[in-house]
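Q: What residues go here?
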C-alpha cells in the first residue's frame, strides 16, 4: 500500500509583469507539504516572476498587459501576466500529522501585487496508484534444467539411440543393430568365419592333414607298423 498523495490545481499571476522581469522584485508562490515546497515548475524551479515569463518557461506564461502588441486578453483579471493552470502534488506521511502551508511573497516592496488562484474542488488526498509490474524480457535465460521440447541442435551422446542418426556419434557402448565393420575378436562365434583360426583342440570333423600318432587307433592301419607286442590273432606254425 502506497502513502496517500495530496494534489491541487493553481495559477500564479502578478502586476510585476512585464516591467520588473529579471529584477529584485521577484514575487513568488510556494506550497509547503511537511516543510517541502511541492509547487514547482517542470524543471524543478519555484514559481516566480523571473522563472515564468516570455523568456523562461514561456509555454506556461500568458501575457495580459495593454502595453503588449496582443493587448489585454483577460480584462476580468488585474494581473499583467499569469501562468497556465498547473498541478502541485506530493506524498504524505504514512503515520502522524501532515502540515501544509500556502505562501505568496511580495518581494522588495508592496506597491505591485501578485496573486494565486486555486481551482475549485481540485484539492484531493487519495492513495497513490501502484506501479506497473516490470515488463517481461525478450531475451530468454539459459537454464541448466532439461527441456521437454526437442532441440534443433542435438548434442553428441555416448549412449546408444533407438533411431538411426544422419550424423551418428562414436559410442563405446554396444549397438543393437549389426555393424557393417565387425571388429576382430579372440572369442569363438556361432557363425562360421571366412578366415578360420588355427586350433590345437581336436575337431569333430575329419582333418584333411592327419597327424602321426604313437598311440594305437581303433581303426586298422593301411600301413601297419612292426610291433614287438604279440597280436591277438592266431599264428599258424610254419613248416619245419
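A:
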Amino acid at each position: 500500500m502506497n502513502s496517500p498523495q495530496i494534489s491541487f490545481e493553481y495559477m500564479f499571476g502578478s502586476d510585476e509583469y512585464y516591467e520588473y522581469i529579471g529584477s529584485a522584485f521577484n514575487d513568488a508562490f510556494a506550497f509547503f507539504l511537511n516543510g517541502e515546497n511541492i509547487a514547482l515548475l517542470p524543471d524543478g524551479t519555484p514559481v516566480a516572476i523571473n522563472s515564468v515569463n516570455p523568456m523562461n518557461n514561456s509555454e506556461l506564461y500568458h501575457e495580459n498587459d495593454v502595453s503588449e502588441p496582443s493587448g489585454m486578453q483577460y480584462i476580468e483579471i488585474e494581473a499583467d501576466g499569469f501562468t497556465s493552470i498547473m498541478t502541485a502534488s506530493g506524498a504524505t506521511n504514512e503515520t502522524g500529522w501532515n502540515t501544509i502551508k500556502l505562501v505568496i511573497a511580495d518581494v522588495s516592496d508592496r506597491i505591485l501585487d501578485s496573486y494565486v488562484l486555486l481551482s475549485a474542488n481540485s484539492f484531493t488526498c487519495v492513495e497513490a496508484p501502484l506501479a506497473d509490474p516490470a515488463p517481461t524480457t525478450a531475451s530468454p535465460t539459459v537454464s541448466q534444467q532439461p527441456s521437454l521440447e526437442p532441440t534443433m541442435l542435438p548434442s553428441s551422446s555416448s549412449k546408444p539411440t533407438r533411431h538411426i542418426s544422419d550424423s551418428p556419434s562414436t559410442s563405446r557402448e554396444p549397438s543393437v543393430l549389426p555393424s557393417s565393420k565387425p571388429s576382430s575378436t579372440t572369442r569363438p562365434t556361432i557363425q562360421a568365419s571366412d578366415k578360420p583360426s588355427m586350433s590345437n583342440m581336436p575337431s569333430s570333423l575329419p582333418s584333411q592333414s592327419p597327424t602321426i600318432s604313437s598311440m594305437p587307433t581303433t581303426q586298422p592301419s593301411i600301413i601297419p607298423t612292426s610291433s614287438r607286442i604279440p597280436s591277438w590273432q592266431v599264428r599258424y606254425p610254419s613248416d619245419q
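A: Context that may help when evaluating the design: The first strand starts at residue 4 and ends at 14. The beta strands are 4-14, 28-33, 36-37, 47-48, 61-63, 81-83, 86-91, 100-105, 114-118, 124-127.
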